[in-house]
Amino acid sequence: MTDFTTLRVAIIHYWLVGMRGGEKVLEEICALFPQAEIFTHVLDPEAISPALRQHQIHTTFINGLPGARKHYQKYLPLMPMALEELDLRGFDLVISSESGPAKGVITPPNCLHICYCHSPMRYLWNMYHGYKAEAGALTRLLMVPLCHYLRQWDQLSSGRVDHFLANSTAVQARINKYYRRQAVVIHPPVDTESFTITTGELGDYYLVCGQLVGYKRVDLAVEACNRNGRPLVIIGGGEMLKKLKAKAAANIRFLGPQSFEVLREHYQHCRALLFPGEEDFGIVPLEAMACGRPVIAYGKGGVLDTVRDGVTGILFPEQSVESLLAAINDYESRPEAFAPDTIRAHAQHFSKEVFRQRLREVIGSALAPAATPTPGPGAALST
What we know:
By secondary structure, this protein is an alpha/beta fold. The protein is built from 15 helices and 13 strands.
């Protein structure tokens, strides 16, 4: 087995201004490499976990620009240049954590570069036209030349990566589509041990939780429960909160952002989680499943890897109110078909321990003397 402790390791993460899914993955990568140094564009030390703060953290020049902590995305056009200015001489292994710009660093000739890709940048590729349609007039005007330039750099810099890892089969396909590269799927870690099946009675409500932004399509859940009168609890805040409240009937409650304990309690007691958006992977459905509760989800994206249709939940085929309503009715006709113990056992396949073991195996294979990095199109590690 490869001795990781002897390696000098650099981890490149796009920005550290909160603790969301990408940062949870970063924590687990850091757990494998406690000696690693972290490089990022923007850092807010108070917004990240103590586990990450234990590492030596370097920032690019973006961190020193006015308002960078809050408006970092406005500096996106400068980030390619900032990445290329990072001096990584002396490192044996570079792991880039990609969702925003991270993989475009210049690594030494004998350094292995592995990219864990949460997704090719959505606002440049698969969701570009959606973001553009929702932007203001001036932003739309600027987006055209800037995104054109960034797409060229993003595709070109994919050749600097020796091996790609993807967080789902959906992202794996995207990497192949936009970068013409193959990737090994390693699903993100879920803290399954912090979630348990309740011994109490279930509530009568359905649950939605997460950031209330347009692409998550919480409006479909609101309209569906407006029509069928089922109680719905929504946990989370975001730009869509006011609009969703305005259209919600009395059977729908908005709790705003809540503590972990409140979130877990609602997972445990809900009839089912509603997940009408399309995500690259989606941690929320697995947290609900770790509590033994089924998931009613739009059957596209990351849930195709995590929800077993008819066993741990129901996948509905169209992103429409009618399709969601049909799935809710299907569940109501056979709730006993979704056994909590079976659902939780499935969620355990996505635990932190599974993630670490899988990552250790794949990186160890890439570091082995027999492994020959091939950065051209089609290169990939064996699974």
